[in-house]
């Protein structure tokens, strides 16, 4: 067969191919010729053929048949063949292939070769694809080369030792002495390799870290020499002397000074000198300054030095390069909890970054702006955040609204300001708020009795202008149903009085009921508000009765059920209508249950008159249904369209007790508080578990998750697994995000049915995303509180 074409001609033929099929044809012909020449015993063009095969490999075509040729060329005494053979080994072989073991002896022989370039080839190959077995066999040779007199070889050996330490941690002790001696070298490449090796050793072993803390003065001297040295053409990059070595030394100093005051004190002066003398007008200088800042913030540095580091990050925020602005805000986000006042000085610059066109910079600026909100700047910061909310991209609206709610709840200067802020958010981005926003706002409005008139007027006007924001519409319907009499009265000192008639209010509620934009839950709010108004107005009761009766045949089952119950209240229990629909009392937070519209675990016992016969349970449940109760007696939960979160059932002197007295005697069993245990607690995420036994085989498990860290957690999911004989049904969670500092919780209900009474166990998988990193963990639950396991 004629010899194959030269490498240059093959490349030219491949590039001139018009189709992929033509390209494959050229490569297949060349590979066939190369394979045939590999089989010849006397082949003078071995390196030439292997070079062409490596080019084919780079194009993504199979070239595995050249592996054995690489092994043969490595064993060749000629340098030209060794060079191509080692290059082929690094590209075609890896530690998982058996062929890699065949070159171990050749590498060992070449490490002892008198030619430094052959030694270099062997070192590079071992550092690139050496397996754990090869590292163990050749580690003594590498340690010997670390003590060689040739700086070129020592540099390569140091980097090869780094690979060995990563592959086999136990071999780190072998290189400790040699690594320390390399710091005295004058050659920058050797010192750079030594610093990288020492960094790797310190990260792998705490005892080695303590031993190398004694080298801090040596590292400080090397760094000072780089900072104050004059122009050196061999190492100068944009006016900075060997910035690569400076960055590596700063990273090592950060590791050595972490949690150690002695080492930190020894490097404080150096860090101050680097921070003040490094030119920040070039990217190279900014890289050194950034590593300096990270080192200052990570060690036990002086307070003045930390302020200097924060000021450097503040200068980064003014840089035109968006990458530099991004890393500055990322670093400030990490220290805002410990150096809040220092970061606060740059608040104006950070807020200006909210207007940046880059989405990543904008998101970082939002996180940092929310972290900077405090009692002293709540008004000015909230003005900026509300302005940002009106123009921010859709993917940031939910995070912005959540952050505003949390800040307003913590630092609100007044209740009216708090309500106005939340209403502003609901008006601007109501469709992007969390599910718990509506019950939270309802509770806030309920607790501020002096603002009921102001709030109902403001919400009524908002409802007239826009009914597309569903959370806002739900809260408005609730307020109109509860405080409609204040709206009709038209007397409000806090806002401009508006004359509203009964027909106007009912027209608005009917518009919400008939709108195609209204959710089923929103219609429930509007229907219940309409029913509540039947006790607060006098002239349009028949119209209300007509509206309610229409929805008795609604296609939505929940809305139909409410309408049927309200019709029954008009007809059968009309004498109780005023008492059932009276204004809701103040809603209190219950530490043993959930807050604002979720289940409350404790109920007070309802007293009944002695001697009276008990009524059948279904009649009691019917009456509780009319009161907005749940399926469980004396444990109300919010029904669809309920105008208020549930409240504990009152004692006999309340309306609920009187109504139950009308039915005769009723002595329910008081519900004992449910025991709660912590099943998972790691990295600021806590998951608690509580159980409630429904029957001999039925069990309801409530999992509650909270986040105590300084950053929000997103994509939070819980997955559960139980033995095969146990039936499991997971209900929809209350949300998929955990706000920072425990501002809100995620609740997941799990219903278990254990007909065979087997020993109950559950495996829980917890998944979430925190600060851009995905986290997944598993926990085994072997005992459940209250079951006697």
From TrEMBL:
The lineage of its organism: Eukaryota, Metazoa, Chordata, Craniata, Vertebrata. It is a peripheral membrane protein. Pfam families: Adaptin_N (PF01602), Alpha_adaptinC2 (PF02883). GO terms for biological process: axis elongation; central nervous system development; intracellular protein transport; vasculature development; vesicle-mediated transport. The keyword Protein transport applies. This is AP-1 complex subunit gamma. One of its GO terms (cellular component) is AP-1 adaptor complex. It comes from the Eukaryota. Keywords: Cytoplasmic vesicle, Golgi apparatus, Membrane, Protein transport, Transport. Residues 672-785 form the GAE domain. It is found in: Cytoplasmic vesicle membrane; Endomembrane system; Golgi apparatus.
